[in-house]
Amino acid sequence: MRVLVIGGTLFIGRNLVDALLKAGHEVSVMHRKSEHSLGRKVGNIAADRNDPESVKTALKNEKFDVVFDNVYDWQRGTTAAHVEQTAKACGDHLHRYVFMSSVAAYGDGLNHHEGDALAPDDHPDSYVRNKAQSERMLFRMHQRYGTPVVTIRPPYIYGPANPFYREAFFWDRMREGRPVIVPGDGRRLMQFVFVKDLVSACLKVMEEPNAVGHAFNIANPRPLTQTEVVQAFADAAGRKPTLVRIPRERILQAGGNPMNAPLYFGVYFDMPAITQVISKAQRVLRFKATPFADGLKETYRWYQRNRSRQPQDYTFEDRLLSRYLVAATAS
């Protein structure tokens, strides 16, 4: 099949492009640059998906069987209107339009099934709001026009070449023998999916006829506490971590940021828990997750070969630790 991957040059997209090529598909990517580093077999379409006219012009002479819509503009936001215009620009002959959503689309809460309500239109977080609104719009297109929509809702995605400072955040500190700050009591839940498992699910929904018109939670079945997550990172690296538990409100009062510097627990890793149930994906897609320990070992091997040699700035952490080191506990 002819496949277009929107946002195919980074983490999910790069893995997806590789898997599609291995499966024998003809693949192109759409991104803002005039060239890519994915090899000569991969076509290049230059367009800004947040500019509907740019997308329409770029796709007017193209016909694809499957479109994977993976990109989100973190600076400007990617709205339901942007997604709608892209879906319409792809024409009415599609076999699948696969939209990469997020567990965040639920807004909050634990143990979500796909039929649960998504976040409301007035949700204060723009990312949550945009993902939920985009899904609602796509399913309206499916109902009204028969657009062969599938949406996928992963939680935290991990794996080799993760562009977010997440796994490497902890391994950098462990390699230097530094304590790891754990916000609060460390019991906040987190759920993960290995990037290769997510890609396998993407390929499966291309072929599974019962996938059309449905959303799928794609994740490891069991959420972990933040303390369990840090321990799993340590086990993968063969390290014994020292954990320092500091009240979350004190970290934030001191200027700690969950997204940017001064970062204290990996990018976006300290968020209110949202978890999901994956029984539908197991039943319909026969989804089976890679054990977290196995996926982390593979990711750590990549990290060892590719880790940044730039020194990290630990000034903020040192200031916190100097005040709260008495709370440290060896794990």
According to DSSP, the number of beta strands is 16
Strand content: 15-25%
Mean pLDDT: 95
Work out the oligomeric state of the chains in this entry.
single chain
Q: Would you tell me the structural class of the helices and strands?
A: alpha/beta
Unreliable sequence segments: 327-331
N-to-C SSE series? EHEEHEHEEHEEHEEEHEEHEHEHHHE
Helix fraction bin: 25-40%
The number of distinct helices, counting runs of at least 4 residues, comes to: 11
Largest β-sheet summary:
7 strands, parallel
- End-to-end gap: 50 Å
Would you write up a description of this structure?
- The protein has 331 residues and is α/β, with parallel strands linked by helices.
- Helices cover 37% and strands 19% of the residues.
- The protein has 11 helices and 16 strands.
- Helix 3 (80-89) links the parallel strand 4 and strand 5.
- Helix 2 runs parallel beside helix 3, helix 3 runs parallel beside helix 4 and helix 7 (226-237) packs across helix 10 (292-306).
